[in-house]
Design brief:
It comes from Actinomadura luteofluorescens. It holds the Pfam family Pyr_redox_2. It catalyses: [thioredoxin]-dithiol + NADP(+) = [thioredoxin]-disulfide + NADPH + H(+). Keywords: Flavoprotein, Oxidoreductase. With about 300 residues, the chain is of the alpha/beta class. The protein is built from eight helices and 17 strands. Strands 1, 2, 3, 4, 5, 6 and 17 form a seven-stranded mixed β-sheet that branches. Strands 8-15-9-10-11 form a five-stranded parallel β-sheet. Helix 1 runs parallel beside helix 2 and helix 1 runs parallel beside helix 8. The longest helix has about 35 residues.
Amino acid sequence: MTERDVLIIGGGPAGLSGALVLARARRSVTVVDAGEPRNAGVDHMHGFLTRDGMPPARLLETGRTEVRGYGGEIVEGTVARAEEGFVLTLGDGARLRGRRLLVTTGVTDVLPDVPGLRERWGREAQMCPYCHGWEVRDQRIAVLGTSPNSVHQALLLRQWSPDVTFVADTPPAGEDAARLAARGIPVAPGGVRRVVVEDDRLTGLELADGSVLGCDAVFLAPTWVPKAGPLTDLGCETGEDGFVKTDPTGRTSVPGVWAAGNVVVPSGQVIMAAAAGAMAAAMINADLVEEEVARELSVSKSRPTSLA
């Protein structure tokens, strides 16, 4: 069985950032990655200082090269099971053991059941205004009322375009309606039947009454489901939303287990996930150092004292 100082499950920005920090700290580290990044359908990522506009695949390729350059190992595969003692069984039956574990498995975006929407996800259909608002500035934007945060999302997007329409099965009322009106955002009631596409480009939304709302981009808040299998296997405490509870450094309720990135904060941008992975890695290394110091002190105390 392969034994390493640290095992990292998930090779996205958080996992690779953590691996880079640990490898540079001269820790033996293995990253297990399934090769299914959350932003696989996106051509370019934004808001990452010095990496703005870079294709996500290139970021991961560059990150893997940097990690390997310091002796880190990347294993392509899935984790079938995580056991006490930080033993991982991979999908192909291989087994790995680590002294510490960092989980950066991310989240699944569950979209509403609107025909055609999944095919446009990561293209004209997006979630984050800060990631993609600039690219659709001054265009026709529709915001789907899919969550309690959708009104806030629409209010934000008005910063990028004067043509924002809120689309919801049930029109907002009370304070939400007043806030939308204050930003000049009309409401199209009745929900969405399907996405309208022409020449491989989203051009509108067919509404419940059969009319078509012309738009160039759609924003929505999907339902977030954490890929928390390893954390669940190990008994890490989760909140009511199903996401693992951590302290500010990523430490979970199970000693020796850290989590970082979208598996903890699903709304975090790429740069935030990378920062969280780096923070967790530094704390993991410090934790290992303390364990090693304690072990050496214990050995020293157990040695017989020689008499002069």
